[in-house]
Amino acid sequence: MRQSEVETAPNVGNDESAKFIQGVCNKNGELLILVELDKMMSEEEWSELESI
């Protein structure tokens, strides 16, 4: 995927639910939602996940 294919995420939901969405891309007729995983979960949640 090229940077030029990534669009700004539309304003949907609230700021809390959209804070980790980096952008969107229409690739081969499918909508891809790009998320920033570091913002999606806290350090504590990442640590818990790693211990599984």
State the low-pLDDT regions, or none. none
Structural class: alpha+beta
Domain module count:
1
Q: Number of helical runs?
A: 3
Q: Major β-sheet, in short?
A: 2 strands, antiparallel
Strand order of the largest sheet: 1-2
Q: Gap between N and C termini, in Å?
A: 31 Å
- What letter string, H or E per element, gives the SSE order? HEEHH
Task: Tell me the radius of gyration.
Answer: 14 Å
Question: How helical, in percent, are the residues?
Answer: 25-40%
- Overall morphology: extended
- The average pLDDT value, as a whole number, equals 83
Instruction: List the quaternary state of the chains.
Output: single chain
- Classify the beta-strand content into a percent band: 25-35%
Number-wise, the strands total 2
Question: Could you characterize what this model shows?
Answer:
This protein is α+β, with helices and mostly antiparallel strands and 52 residues long. The protein has one domain. Helices cover 31% and strands 25% of the residues. It is built from three helices and two strands; from the N terminus they run αββαα. Strands 1-2 form a two-stranded antiparallel ribbon. β1 and β2 (30-35) form a beta hairpin. The chain is extended and about 35 Å long. The model has no long low-confidence stretch (mean pLDDT 83). It comes from Pseudomonas syringae pv. maculicola. This is Chemotaxis protein CheW.
Quick structural summary:
This protein has 52 residues and is α+β, with helices and mostly antiparallel strands. Helices cover 31% and strands 25% of the residues.
